[in-house]
């Protein structure tokens, strides 16, 4: 029988944790049903939108929609370190390892595989929440102007999901909005095709799907040069 004491949500003071009014999309990668249940319930209680992957393959299919990944290294099909490397190879989504592997070498390997933090079981939920806040604070811009991305004549309001060009509304589908926001948030950078497809479509995508959305965006932005194709690599936002 599994030891479900790896996470202790009821340690002294745990119930006093503040609930975040607007949580993150968190992917929990955990094969132990008891640990997974306690962890997902605790995260949801604190305002986060949580999905669960029970093995490495499920994780690789699901991480594209996550803003944060919590991963145990002991998975039934793939080694958790390989899953971390695969995720880190295509995106910069924050990764926190939560595992029973406790040696110094294990910690070093986890961080080298791309983890942003490493937490050993058993641990208290308060510590986990503090580590999550610290990791997300490092990757989240501090000023509220980050809610609006401006590029030339283009303005993208992240909160209202409104896009304007020269002050006029541009009607986009949800996926078109995500694609445009991704490109505009990294101006001047070429974003690889695979990274775009994983970040926006997760495990369900095709090359044709991406090309169709790029073509539609170019049309709605009124110029073919609004999104530049870098052959053999990916796309970048052009002159708008």
Automatic annotation (TrEMBL):
Sequence positions bearing 4-aspartylphosphate: 72
- Give one GO biological process term: regulation of DNA-templated transcription
Q: Gene3D superfamilies this protein is in?
A: 3.40.50.2300, 6.10.250.690, Winged helix-like DNA-binding domain superfamily/Winged helix DNA-binding domain
Domain Response regulatory: start-end pairs: 25-136
Residues within the DNA-binding region(s) = 146-239
- What keywords is this UniProt entry annotated with? DNA-binding, Phosphoprotein, Transcription, Transcription regulation
Q: Tell me if Phosphoprotein is a UniProt keyword of this record.
A: yes
Task: Name all OmpR/PhoB-type domain ranges.
Answer: 146-239
CDD domains for the chain: trans_reg_C
* Domain of life (superkingdom): Bacteria
Q: Which GO terms describe its cellular component?
A: cytosol; protein-DNA complex
Give one GO molecular function term: phosphorelay response regulator activity
Q: Does the keyword Phosphoprotein apply?
A: yes
Q: What is this protein called?
A: Sensory transduction protein RegX3
Tell me what organism the protein belongs to.
Answer: Streptomyces sp. 2238-SVT4
Gene designation per UniProt: hrbR3
